[in-house]
Amino acid sequence: MRAGEQWTDEAVRLESERWVYVPPDATRLEDEQRLLVHLPIPWGQSRVWRSSAPDEERAGELIEDTIGAVRAAGGGRLVWHTGEGISPPFMDECLVKRGFQTTEELAVLAFSLVDGLEPRLPRLGVPEGVSAELVRDADGLREALLVDSEVFSSPPPSGEEFAEYARELEKLGLRERGGSLDEGASLALRFLAYADVGSEYTGDDARKALGAAGAQIVGETLRLWGAATREPFRGRGAYRTLVLERCRVGRELGATLALAKANIATSGPTLERAGFRVVATERRNVLEVF
Q1: What is the tens place of the pLDDT at every residue in 3-47?
Q2: Residue 24 in contact with residue 161, Cβ under 8 Å?
Q3: Which domains does the chain have, with CATH numbers?
Q4: Which of 77, 162, 191, 218 is the most buried (most CB within 10 A)?
């Protein structure tokens, strides 16, 4: 964006449509009808990130073809994303007819990290005794991945994840020294929320990770993803602290827009109260393929 320009809803929706997660060891299959990603074997999951069909009959054929492709790839959970800009309006009903269940409704939320030429941050109060930090070493990454595993039942940390994050930290160092990334390159970072020593939140004298979250900078957009809080510490400010710290770091690294996809019943209202605006809605529809 040019200095002083604001992010329009249309521009934000285009950024949201570009937000697709494809791990290095995943299989990406894309044509004019769909973008299908088979995640690595430990995940046992495939995702349709966007789809297109001229009518319900063609949509049904596309769904059946995709189920067959997932079955041929070994089966597992098929997650189909629907919503404004990423699928036709009748796709949800077609998915239901073929056994899919809508498991999550998400609000696409945007927050401008600049107001004219002035920097700004979301209106989020941080509780005393809770802090968030950017992960800068292997020990911190291990802790963040363990939080993910505990909350999301994700696979245990692998050596490749540590090597990949080390490369991201190299890019971060270059950016912090005033260098620039190659055009189109992204920067993926991890964050941890902690309770300070002796905090009432842990009940002991050890510094403990309450939660973890990820962020990815692509161009001027800061994508907020993967926020997870350990169950005993939910409702105590870890999520708000992680949002605020990710926005602060992202703004310092040149981001002008914070973009989130949040559950409309849980984290979505928190972000709206903090100044994020809703620009679209998306749904995640799930089918177990055997």
Answers
A1: 557 899 999 999 999 999 998 889 999 999 999 999 988 788 999
A2: no
A3: 9-106 (no CATH), 114-255 (3.40.630)
A4: 191
